[in-house]
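Teaching note: in complex prediction, the entire set of molecules is handled at once rather than each chain in isolation. The prompt given to students was simply: 'Predict the structure of this complex.' The entities are:
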Amino acid sequence: MAEESVLTISDLSLTFGKGRAASQVLNSISLHVKRGEKVALVGESGSGKSVTARLAMGLLQSNKTTISGHIDVAGLDATQGGAAIAAARGRRVTMIFQDPTSALNPVFRVGRIFREVQRTGDESLTPAEMDRRSAEALKAVSIPDPARCLQSYPFQLSGGMNQRVLIAMALINDPSLLIADEPGTALDVTVQAQTLALMHDLTQRKGTAVLFISHNLGVVREFADRVYVIYRGRIVEHATTAQLFSDPRHPYTRALLQAVPKIVKTGLPELPETSPSFLDPLIVHPGCGEPGTVPA
Amino acid sequence: MPKLLLTFLRRVGTSLIVLFGVSILIFGIARIMPGDPARIALGPNATQQQVEALREARHLNDPIHEQYFYFVRELLHGDLGVSLYTKRPVTTDVAQFLPSSLELVFASGLLMVVLGIPLGLLTARYQGRWPDHAGRLMSVIAVCTPAFVWGVILQLLFAYFVPIFPIEGQLSSAMKPPPTVTGFLTVDSILAGNMPTLANALYHLVLPALALALAAIGQTARLTRSSMIEIYRKPYVEMSRAYGFSERKIATRYAFRPALIPTLTVLGLDFAALLANAFLVERVFGWPGLSRYGVEVILRKDLDAIVGTVLIIAALFLICNLIVDLLVSIINPRIRLAEKRAGS
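The expected output is the structure of the full assembly:
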């Protein structure tokens, strides 16, 4: 079972700071993503979604963080960060960001960044080979004139173009896991939907597993196989997408679903910002247990 | 490229206008200063007739705008007038003293870049850890201590207590200077193929160059550090990490290039400021440079020499800025592309 998972997080807690200034951000969370699977992590701002993503990438670990539990990424122990996970970044696990334009270095041409990304995957490629592969990758994300795009600086391209560029970069080294941290939230809704559909198709074809981090339930419903709902650093509900949307059981999940604006109704229902029931224990839907534990 | 050339020519044009303004200013200031240059030049024993004759010969009795007219007319013939102090054309004096100063300033500028920038990168990379604290402390000490104090300290430490380096001068007295071609001792030594002289000249250059550079090194390190720390927070640096770029590559290229844009502008000004700071360092080390010459002629109210020296320094300042602007537009594609559009 463990070999089948590209990401396994078990019993992970994270505290920022020490002593009296300490603040606990993650409270014993467990989640896993199987090979080729699309898993969403949903929650409001500050619930610990992005922090989880960065821990899994080994990007957050520092002397200011206290971590307990275990993170396994593609067979590597990423719990305390370090060299092993650093070497796997860009090859076995990559990431897509909220704002594509600010995630691309403004003083380098797209082609140059592309080459550097490929160099982390395979040192032996010649620049010409890399450029050819970049152009192919750009064609795969429906960029009309790849050669011109490679010659451009990120600020000369539109947000949607940059998002496609990032998707192409993220997948060029055939990673086994892609972490998408609220991808395209900074873009307008139609462009976001287009690029998400593109990302979905491409990962589907390549068999890349995706950990999809979002606060947008509509998007999650469309793209995820399984959903974890996170609230204040705890996982509160774990279900398949179908189960979650047809039968939300946790009070927080219900509140979250009700907060989605609907066209027919007028206005949003009066929802409590917080409620003691939001801290109810984790609800796991049938067939969704963590690997290595007895199914509920 | 003609568009870039056009921008360059435009900048040269504005620089010339600035230079024209500076010339009026310094011409006026030099003549407003109290004291009679003719009297100072001739000494207390000269008769009133002699003084009057010199004043007449130098047009000092004419209205100031007519004097300026004579000055510009001579300047257009490449003539900066004659120094009353050395009794030689100012251009000859400048040609003799400027290369020594530039040699010192270039050496300091080199130290500023090759020591200051890596120190900045190091402290930014290890922000909040011991290399950062140590580097920042050194930078602050370097910045806070004036260049001439550094000069004296270095002389004491490395020329007096531990006599590794010569205490002053440009060349050992036993050494025969190479034939003058460019005026730069080091360059002339290379041209003459005289390696012992080159080694000796470089040996003499170490302490004054370091004394002059220390404050600039500290300043550059602090500037590079703060600029790098700002860039380290950018999403594209996190992206570089997430895509597996090595920390080394990020520090020396992917974060460094954007961080260099604001740093370079200030670096250019700092480099030009070295020329001004050289005044005191040249005095401490008995360095026969233009700055020392400048001090002498100001104290003697040697009008032509003052105006000439200041104009040369101002021109160097402007050239520095011009080069920096060009470099910035090369590493910053947004400026380069904006200029292309504006030119077309």
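Point out the following to students. Chain A touches chain B at residues 57, 59, 86-91, 94-95, 97-99, 102-109, 116-117, 120-121, 153, 155-156, 166, 169-170 (CB under 8 Å). The first strand of chain A starts at residue 5 and ends at 16.
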